[in-house]
Design a protein that fits this description.
Elements (H helix, E strand, L loop, with lengths): L6 E4 L2 E4 L4 E3 L2 E6 L2 E6 L11 E8 L3 H12 L8 E2 L4 E7 L9 E7 L20 H9 L2 E8 L3 H9 L7 E9 L2 E9 L13 E5 L12 H4 L6 E9 L2 H10 L5 E5 L3 E8 L2 E6 L4
Parallel strand pairs: 6-9, 10-13, 14-15
Antiparallel strand pairs: 1-2, 2-5, 3-4, 4-5, 6-10, 7-8, 8-9, 11-12, 12-13, 14-16, 16-17
């Protein structure tokens, strides 16, 4: 079956004069002027949309993270919560802008008093058990990663798996908040690795499967304004081409990509002026 438009196919890609076409039960979705043939029902790049959800700064202790935030960004972070299965806890504040409407900032640390009976047997998220990461953040808290929000984490993970990128399984997590139990689904490898030295985001889908209003308790909707906002987010990596293809596969926009040494860079507007944070490949 063909839609009424002209199609020229070659090696799994086609150029067409319209938005999409169906050929032998397979859908071609538009990526700029080139379309990728994908199985029916999967909409990669052109139809899938992900966006910056939050930045991740890892600290040796949460009190160290709070002191760093006050000295570096000029604000005291808001409350967060505890993650029993990961043995971590955090503090949060909003950094949303019209360009990044869901963005917030997470300062996270290993919880020294977490109940070991509740801990997962796998490594903690964000490489927090990695000795090199622990050595780095022992000196001072550091921006290490960012997380992208998606309405369909299974499809996003599959899009990357088709590119040879194993983002891990989807775990179901929650934490207590004053307004109720906050649920989310998160892509996590058993080894806890971030991949691409932190420049490829982890994936998050808020709410439980089937939630009618999964964003209701999203931190962006429950945190007050913080006087800090995200001006821009950039990443660099030696394999920037593969990284760009991964971003395109899940429709992630708003992040600048360039070839170079591995780095996540966030520029923030703060009471202390513009502040630039870098991961420096940690």
């Amino acid at each position: 079956m063909h839609l009424p438009c002209r199609v020229r196919a070659n090696h799994g890609y086609s150029r067409t004069d319209c938005g999409f076409s169906v050929v032998a039960g397979r859908v071609m979705t538009k990526i700029a002027s080139v379309q990728r043939i994908t199985p029916m029902g999967q909409w990669y790049g052109g139809g899938m949309k992900t966006q910056i959800d939050h930045l991740v700064v890892v600290a040796s202790t949460l009190s160290q993270g709070v002191q760093w935030c006050e000295a570096t960004l000029g604000i005291t972070p808001g409350p967060g919560g505890e993650h029993d299965k990961q043995g971590t806890h955090n503090r949060l504040f909003k950094i949303a802008t019209p360009e990044h409407p869901m963005a917030y900032f997470e300062i996270i640390a290993i919880h020294p008093h977490a109940d070991p009976a509740l801990r997962s047997k796998n490594a903690r998220w964000f490489d927090m058990d990695d000795p090199a990461v622990q050595k780095s953040v022992a000196k001072q808290p550091r921006l290490l990663h960012f997380v992208a929000g998606t309405p369909d984490i299974a499809a996003a993970r599959q899009a990357w798996f088709d590119q040879g990128i194993d983002r891990g399984t989807t775990i179901h997590a929650n934490r207590r908040t004053p307004k109720g139990l906050l649920h989310w689904q998160f892509s996590l490898r058993p080894d806890g690795q971030r991949l691409f030295q932190g420049t490829l985001p982890s994936l998050i889908q808020w709410g439980k499967p089937g939630d009618a209003d999964p964003q209701r308790l999203h931190p962006r909707n429950t945190l007050p304004r913080s006087k800090v906002s995200l001006e821009r987010l950039s990443v660099s990596h030696p394999n920037a081409t593969k990284l760009q293809a991964a971003f395109d596969a899940v429709g992630l926009r708003g992040v600048n990509i360039a070839p170079g040494s591995a780095n996540v860079q966030a520029v923030l507007k703060t009471p202390k002026g513009l502040v630039t944070l870098n991961s420096d490949g940690v």
